[in-house]
Amino acid sequence: MSFRPFILVAVFAAGVASALWAPGMPALRKAVGVAAEQPRQEAKTPEAERQPVVRMDDERIALAKIEQVQVGPGSIARRLLVPGTVAPDADRVAHVSVKLSGTVAELRKNIGDIVAQGEILASLESREVADAKSEYLAARLANELQQDLAGRDKLLWEGRAAPELQYIRSRNAAAQTAMRLDIARQKLLALGVQENEIAGLPQAPEISLRSQNVRAPISGRVAARRVELGTAVGRDNLETELFVIVDLSRVWVELAVSSSDLPLVKEGQTVRITGRGMPETAFGKIVFVSPLLEKETRSARVVAALDNPDGRWRPGSFVTAAIALNDHRADVVVPIGALQTVNGRRVVFIRSKDGFEVRGVIPGERDGEVIEIASGLAAGETIAVSNTFSLKAELSKPRDED
Description:
- The strands form 5 sheets. A 6-stranded antiparallel barrel has the order 3-12-15-14-13-16. The chain has a 4-stranded antiparallel beta sheet with strand order 1-19-18-17, with helices on one face.
- Helix content is 26%, strand content 37%.
- By secondary structure, it is α+β, with helices and mostly antiparallel strands.
- It is elongated.
- The two termini are 70 Å apart.
- Helix 5 (127-158) runs antiparallel to helix 6.
- It folds into 3 domains: 53-75 and 329-395, Beta Barrel (conserved putative lor/sdh protein from methanococcus maripaludis s2 fold), CATH 2.40.420.20; 78-90 and 248-328, Efflux pump adaptor protein, beta barrel domain (Elongation Factor Tu (Ef-tu), domain 3), CATH 2.40.30; 97-246, no CATH class.
- Strand 18 (345-351) and strand 19 (355-360) form a beta hairpin.
């Protein structure tokens, strides 16, 4: 029996099988009834389909002191950083000086005291002010008598009971006494006596004639006191300055801007002030850019005005000023504390019904304590902005399998 036919059949069958599974032969496979091999699909686990979630209820969120905000658009500025020093506003510093010679009889305010405008700081005894007050009282009395006399002569002249010349003389004398009274009044004002004090002189006790009150010209705080009780003050090389009062409700920030950066700085620009060793920041505006450069440093003096209602910005403190050169509107801006790094990517924690969902984002430009989110977060979503490190720590804890 010959095995040659069987060998030929086996070779033919192997060739057909190779042709069926060769590339480009799906039609042949379909013709002979061979089904195409389906690609194998790996089953997706539920964990692979979900974003990581930190499960927390409202009570745990409150205990963890996690603050939440709804994000939205904001302004991001490019800023120039310049060192600076806090200084008193030159328009809010008052040097209280005396305008007459005398001695300090009473001191009502001391260093550090808060004073209001017009409040009495001290009292002086002065022969000069006593003479001026006496002169005023004499001129006032003379004027009252002469005005009465002029009024009487006018009535007599109108009734033809006195000649016109008598009335004219009385009228001229009344004008002269009125002028002398006004001169005496102006002298008291020049010595620092106020209008209400002048008006009360006729009823004032005699002892007050030699006394002169020194009042605060502005509201603020006593920064210096130059005299003690009994100190002789006034002219003839004596001390004339009694107090220095500073109003620190608004201060200046003195900046030195280099000549190369000076063309970028303009009056009216916003400045963010950060103190050394202080977590707080404040915002002011540039009010002056000097047209002159310092010879030694080749820099210009720039002054920014800063509101200081609580007095925390003390003159002499060193600060860093970030001058806003230009800004743009960002669709989504978040506090810098809202960002964390998880597995090498920047993320935020978005509030969900179960707690906080971890969302990867792409940060943009930063402006101080806020940062732009270029991608990954939409306006209106609520995120955690404080104590987010505790949420990051929760991710590293082992979780139960669903």
